[in-house]
Design a protein that fits this description.
Length: about 375
């Protein structure tokens, strides 16, 4: 299949002047998880030299709580909040052991909740991991074209895997419909739509821990910045967390750049159009976790108001970024490497560099959302 070659670019000069309410923090809950530690923020001076800036730092999510991607941050908090809501429990101070003990002692075996989700890889595995930690079962729906390593990862968590031959957006619909009329199913989906906003917002709030860790690491280094944060996007949930973190009162207001595949650039095309648009995702992409065709309805207003720029990248440029980062000793999969491919494209243009107010003293943070184990090059 011949891949589309069109690269998309969007910029919003007023983004840094927009502010939103301070998001809910999940940091205390994450700190209570066994094995929690902030993921590394790695200096890459050779990339700083290449891009003509002072520093390039990589937020390395290749080992987040024992999983090869960041998604457990959102899934864990959303599962906790959803179950607390179901059983009328106070989420403040809730931990996984306390929640597991409540379920064990207070919920009958025949009434145990089943966690349900659709996924293009990492989110579904994270939901399945949370089910295992709580002594529950999970049912995970997957689209056509998911890599064997992603499928094996979900299976390794003990989930019931429902394989389909349809696209991601249609799998989301299928998973949601499967829970209708099922009293014990709990849908934990990272895509929002009308009437389903609460759980996706909890997922976004969970992702905020990642950006708080970046701020803490820079503060510990007595470093300035960031001046630009680059984030990969699928439906835009992580990018929503990015915007809500850096556009809330009291935070720095860096430039924010989203990056996604040319083959599934739903965010860049929507931003260009000024309204959400649906794009065809039937083309294969090595950036499988970003192969999404419909922007999150929940995140859209924040993205429209607070993202400085959006760029899409080719398969070849992303593959090269993976290889370059691997040569620098970084465990980065295609979705994570999309940030390097995107910033290279953006900064190759003096006009785009100026739009993001970047210069030789700037500090850039690349968010690498997955390790290569999560999505090997194909």
């Amino acid at each position: 299949m011949l891949l589309p070659q069109t690269s998309y670019w969007y910029s919003n000069p007023s983004a840094r002047s927009w502010q939103t309410a301070t998001p809910e923090s999940a940091l205390s809950f994450h700190r209570s998880l066994h094995g929690y530690t902030p993921t590394p923020l790695v200096d890459l001076p050779s990339l700083a030299n290449e891009l003509g800036v002072a520093r390039v730092l990589l937020k390395d999510e290749s080992n987040r709580l024992g999983l090869p991607a960041f998604k457990i941050l959102g899934a864990s908090w959303a599962v906790c909040r959803a179950l607390c809501q179901r059983y009328n429990l106070d989420p403040d101070g809730m931990t996984v052991p306390r929640l597991k003990e409540f379920i064990r002692t207070s919920v009958g075996v025949a009434e145990l909740p089943v966690l349900v989700s659709a996924t293009d890889g990492n989110h579904g595995r994270a939901v399945a991991r949370m089910a295992g930690l709580l002594g529950l079962s999970a049912r995970i729906y997957i689209p056509a074209g998911l890599s064997s390593s992603a499928i094996d990862g979900i299976r390794s968590e003990g989930a019931a895997l429902i394989e389909t031959d349809i696209t991601y957006d249609n799998v989301v619909t299928l998973a949601a419909e499967s829970t209708e009329g099922e009293a014990f199913d709990v849908l934990i989906q990272d895509t929002a739509w009308q009437g389903y906003m609460e759980v996706p917002q909890w997922i976004v709030d969970g992702y905020g821990t990642l950006f708080g860790e970046i701020d803490d690491a820079l503060q510990e280094q007595h470093a300035t910045g960031p001046d630009l944060v680059v984030c990969p996007v699928g439906v835009g949930s992580l990018a929503q967390a990015l915007v809500e973190h850096y556009r809330s009162a009291g935070n720095a207001a860096p430039a924010l750049l989203s990056t996604e595949p040319n083959t599934a650039a739903c965010i860049a095309q929507s931003l260009q159009a000024g309204k959400p648009v649906v794009v065809d995702t039937s083309y294969p992409s090595i950036m499988s976790g970003l192969n999404c065709g419909t922007p999150s309805e929940l995140g859209w207003p924040a993205l429209m108001a607070g993202i400085d720029a959006a760029v899409s990248v080719s398969e070849a440029d992303c593959r090269q970024a993976v290889l370059d980062l691997r040569r620098l000793g970084q465990d980065v999969g295609p979705c994570g490497a999309a940030t390097l491919a995107g910033v290279r494209s953006a900064l190759a243009s003096p006009e785009r560099r100026q739009q993001m107010s970047l210069h030789e003293t700037s500090v850039i943070v690349l968010v690498s959302t997955e390790g290569l184990a999560a999505n090997p090059l194909r």
